[in-house]
Design brief:
The protein is α/β, with parallel strands linked by helices. The chain contains eight helices and 14 strands. Bound molecules: ribose-5-phosphate.
Length: 321
C-alpha cells in the first residue's frame, strides 16, 4: 500500500444533510454504512432558516450534503451555510461541504459591465461559514476551484455517464459538444467511448433561449450523443438536436451531470426529437411519470468512496477520472 493510500482517520465520520436532496444523502450514507446525522433544518415563522444539530459532533469529521437548486435555491444555500456555522460552533473537528451541484456556478464571469461574479461570492460564503473543504461534481467551469481558498475535490460524472452508452457500437456513434465551451469535456467523453467528435456552436439569446450558429463534424447516419454539464430549460440540447437531425443523424441522445429542469423543461424535452436523456442524481430525480426518455445514474457510490477517502486522509485523485 502506498503512503497515499494509508488510512489516517480524523475522529468519527458523520454525514448531515439539508433538505435539498435527502434521497441522495440516504444512498451515500448507505454506501458508507452509517445513518445520516440527526439535525433539524427548517424555517422560523418569518421564513428565516432554523437549524439545530441534534447530536454531539465535538471532534468529529463532519460532511454536510446539500445541492442548492430550484425555486428555493437561496434558502437551500442559506441552510447549508447555517448548518456549517452550527457545526463549527459545536466544535466539529473538520467540516466538508459536499455540494454535488454548486449553485451560481454559471455566474463565474462578467458578461457585461456592472454584473456580479456570484460564483466567487458563493465560494467566499462557504469558506467564511466555516467549511474546511469542499467536495463537488462537475462545476460549470473547472477554474471555479480557484475561487475557494480551501481545498476542493472536484469529481467528474463522465465515467458513470459513459458506462450507460458502452453497449453501443463505437463505429455507429458520434459524441457532440452542444457548445464551444464544452469541447474539452466532449472530447474526453469521446475518448472513453472510442468514437468521433462533432461540435455545435451556439449563442445565447437570453436565460431561456439559445440559437445554433454552426456545426462541425460528420454525423450523417450516426447515433449522436450530446454531452453537457447541465440541462436547464433544455434549449441548448433541443437546438443542437434539431441541427444534428438536419445534418443526417439518425438518432440523437443527450447526457449531462446535472438535471436542473425548471418548470416546463421536462415537458419541452419530452416533446423534443431527443430519444433519451441521461442525467445523474446530483439533483432530485425527474418523476418516473415524466416519461421513459429520462434515465438517472447515481453518483452516490462515487461520493461515498470520496467521503471515505477524505475521512481516511487517502488520495481522492484516483476518483477524479
Ligand atoms: C451553458 O454553458 C451550460 O453548459 C449549459 O449548456 C446550459 O446551462 C444549459 O441551459 P439550457 O438547458 O437552459 O439551454
Amino acid at each position: 500500500m502506498s503512503d497515499l493510500d494509508r488510512p489516517r482517520e480524523e475522529g468519527p465520520l458523520l454525514l448531515f444533510s439539508g433538505n435539498s436532496n435527502p434521497a441522495l444523502t440516504r444512498k451515500v450514507a448507505q454506501g458508507l454504512g452509517i445513518e445520516p446525522g440527526q439535525a433539524l433544518a427548517g424555517r422560523f415563522p418569518n421564513g428565516e432558516v432554523q437549524v439545530r444539530i441534534e447530536e454531539n459532533v465535538r471532534g468529529a469529521d463532519v460532511f454536510v450534503l446539500q445541492s442548492p437548486q430550484g425555486e428555493d435555491v437561496d434558502g437551500s444555500l442559506m441552510e447549508l451555510l447555517v448548518m456549517i456555522d452550527a457545526l463549527r460552533r459545536a466544535s466539529a473537528r473538520r467540516i466538508t461541504a459536499v455540494i454535488p451541484y454548486l449553485p451560481y456556478a454559471r455566474q463565474e464571469k462578467k458578461t457585461a459591465g456592472r454584473e456580479p461574479i456570484t460564483a466567487k461570492l458563493v465560494a467566499n460564503l462557504i469558506a467564511t461559514a466555516g467549511a474546511s473543504r469542499v467536495l463537488t461534481i462537475d462545476m460549470h467551469a473547472p477554474a471555479i476551484e480557484g475561487f475557494f481558498d480551501i481545498p476542493v475535490d472536484h469529481l467528474r460524472a463522465a465515467p458513470l455517464l459513459a458506462q450507460h452508452f458502452l453497449g453501443l457500437d463505437p463505429e455507429q456513434i458520434v459524441v457532440v459538444s452542444p457548445d464551444v465551451g464544452g469541447v474539452e469535456r466532449a472530447n474526453k467523453f469521446r475518448q472513453r467511448l472510442g468514437t468521433t467528435l462533432a461540435i455545435v456552436a451556439k449563442q445565447r439569446l437570453g436565460p431561456q433561449s439559445t440559437e445554433v450558429v454552426e456545426m462541425v463534424g460528420e454525423v450523417k447516419g450516426k447515433i449522436a450523443i450530446l454531452i453537457d454539464d447541465q440541462i436547464s430549460t433544455g434549449s441548448t440540447l433541443v437546438g443542437a438536436a434539431s441541427v444534428l437531425i438536419e445534418r443526417g443523424a439518425v438518432d440523437v441522445r443527450a447526457c449531462a451531470t446535472h438535471g436542473l429542469f425548471p418548470p416546463g423543461a421536462v415537458e419541452y424535452l419530452c416533446d423534443s426529437p431527443l430519444e433519451e436523456i441521461v442525467v445523474t442524481d446530483t439533483l432530485p430525480e425527474v418523476d418516473e411519470g415524466a416519461g421513459s426518455k429520462f434515465h438517472t445514474v447515481s453518483v452516490a457510490p462515487v461520493l461515498a468512496e470520496a467521503i471515505r477517502r477524505i475521512h481516511q486522509n487517502r488520495s481522492v485523485s484516483a476518483l477524479f477520472d
